Each structure stands twice: as structure tokens, then as C-alpha cells.
Amino acid sequence: MDTRTRSSIVAYDLAAGPYQEAWWRNRPFDAVRRFGQQAGRGAVVIDVAGGPALDVRALRDVGLEVVSGDRSEASMRIGSELFPKKSLACWDFRALPFRDGAFGGVWAPAALQHLPREEIRRAFTELRRVQRSGPIFVSFREGSGDLEPVDDPPAGEVYVTSVTEAELKALLADQGHTAIEVERRPDPAGRPGVTWLHGWGRLT
């Protein structure tokens, strides 16, 4: 694992509690609703890097069955305390412990951005492997950086890879997704100079 990726995991481990408290209200709820409509009530979906289960309740509330995990062990402990009866686990989403085509949707906001640029395409391939049908939602910071340091309070300094709109569309298209869209969004925390790309695709 790249040392910068490992450093980010440690930062989220150390700040798991404060991070959950700071961000659980500030989630992309409009995207959750759209994702739920596209997946369909009762669909089993995967939240590939859920941190301290930030989106589990929102996804459940739109009628989805959610399997959520993260590389941060501290985040998963908090998630398991909040949702003791839900399917939560600690995993590396580059090698997910599921059979091919296990899920009817992939939820991955701000997930793949902590990988070096050279690993992102392979990670998309793994997400595609476990997706049978339905929507995929991914988000990245807009830019062209390769694991550059940014401030993500309250975790502090972490490292992120940013992508362009064209790159994100190509990553989705390469995996066979259709109905591809990329939306530019302001930073939910209001940080100046930060724009997010929300990427959508579907498998039918």
C-alpha cells in the first residue's frame, strides 16, 4: 500500500468519532434519493468505503439493504455500535470478499480518491466485478492531482487523487456503465477552491 494511503487511513482511524459527529448531517442526501430510485426498493447494495457508517441510515431509509465496510478499523467499530444489526465489516475495497455480481448497486462517494492514480482503474474493475445491475455513484475532487495533501477536518491532513470530468466519464464507460453523467458540485463544507464531481452510471 502507498504510504500516503496508509497515512490517510491512520488519520481517519484517530479521528473516527469526531469525524462521524462532524459529517453525518452533511451527506449527499439528494444523491441518496436518486440512487435509491434507480436501485429499486429492496435492492442489496454495497457502500464500499462507508467510514463510520455515515450513509447506512440514509440508504436504508430509501428502502435499500446495505452492506457497508471500510479499511479504517476504528470507523467500523463506531459503525457497528450505531448499527449493531447491520452488515458492516472491515475490508479493502480493492479485493472485496464477495462473489461476482453480488450487488444491485455500488455507493462510493469520496472512496477511491485515497488511492494513487495508477490504482484507480483497477479499483473500478473490482467494484464492477461485484455489481450485477443498478446504479453506481462515485465522487472525487475535481483536478489532476495524484495523492496530494489536503485538509479534511477533523481528520486533518489526508492525501487525495483528483480527476477531471472527462477522466471520470472514461472510468465509468470502461467498465460498461451506461447513462453516464458527471455533475460539478460545490464543497459541502464550503472550503474555497474545492469542487466535487458526482459520477453516475448504470448496469442493466
Q: What average pLDDT do the residues reach?
A: 91
Radius of gyration: 15 Å
Give helix % range.
25-40%
Class per helix and strand makeup: alpha/beta
Based on CA inertia axes, which overall geometry fits?
A: globular
Query: What is the strand tally?
Result: 9
N to C succession of SSEs: HHHEHEHEEHEEEHEE
Any overview of this molecule?
This protein is α/β, with parallel strands linked by helices and 204 residues long. It contains 7 helices and 9 strands. The strands form 2 sheets. It has a 7-stranded mixed sheet with strand order 3-2-1-4-5-9-8, with helices on both faces. It starts with a helix and ends with a strand.
Layout: helices, strands, pairs:
Elements (H helix, E strand, L loop, with lengths): L2 H12 L1 H8 L5 H11 L4 E4 L8 H6 L3 E6 L2 H10 L4 E4 L15 E4 L7 H14 L3 E8 L6 E5 L3 E5 L4 H10 L3 E9 L8 E9 L1
Parallel strand pairs: 1-2, 1-4, 2-3, 4-5
Antiparallel strand pairs: 5-9, 6-7, 8-9
Keywords summarizing the entry:
9 strands, alpha/beta, single chain, 7-stranded mixed sheet, 7 helices, 204 residues
Give the gist of this structure:
The protein is α/β, with parallel strands linked by helices. The chain contains 7 helices and 9 strands, in the order αααβαβαββαβββαββ. It has a 7-stranded mixed beta sheet, with helices on both faces. It has a two-stranded antiparallel ribbon with strand order 6-7.
